[in-house]
Amino acid sequence: MHGVQGAAVEGFDVKVYTTNNRGFTPEELAERAVEKLISISETADPMVKAQAMVFQDRIRQLMVFYMNESIRAYKTTLCADLAKQGHADMAKIISNL
């Protein structure tokens, strides 16, 4: 990621994430989603905290896997649609991305 900026506004925690000349990777998006889905208290029992951190990591891995699968499925559909419309050259370019 290119940058992260944060600000607190009375009861709200606002973060702005940016990239430079690219979109977000599945890993970056998964990290942001996990931050929202699973929070771990600093004062939690150490055993509970350790379990929660393992759970967070597993959820992050699953999210990255399925986001990558989704990207592959979308590219497959896009390439098939382009080829069907007579744009095999464009389909090949996209399939090689």
Sheet of most strands? 2 strands, antiparallel
Put simply, the count of helices is 3
The radius of gyration over CA amounts to 19 Å
- N-C termini distance: 20 Å
Approximately what portion of the residues adopt beta-strand conformation?
Answer: 5-15%
Helical amount: 55-70%
Give the strand order, joined by hyphens, for the main sheet: 1-2
SSE succession: EEHHH
Number of strands: 2
User: Structural class, from secondary structure content?
Assistant: alpha+beta
Q: What low-confidence regions span 5 or more consecutive residues with pLDDT below 50? A: none
Overall pLDDT: 90
Q: What is the count of structural domains?
A: 1
- The outline comes out as elongated
Give your account of this protein's structure.
- The chain has 97 residues and is an alpha+beta fold.
- The chain has one domain.
- The chain is built from three helices and two strands; from the N terminus they run E-E-H-H-H.
- The protein has helices at 26-37, 46-84, 88-95, and strands spanning 3-9, 12-18.
- It has a two-stranded antiparallel sheet.
- A hairpin with a 2-residue loop joins strand 1 (3-9) and strand 2.
- Helix 2 (46-84) runs antiparallel to helix 3.
- The protein starts with a strand and ends with a helix.
- The relative contact order is 0.09.
Provide key terms for this protein.
14% strand, 61% helix, elongated, 2 strands, two-stranded antiparallel ribbon, 97 residues
Question: What is the compact description of this entry?
Answer:
With 97 residues, this protein is of the alpha+beta class. The chain has 3 helices and 2 strands.
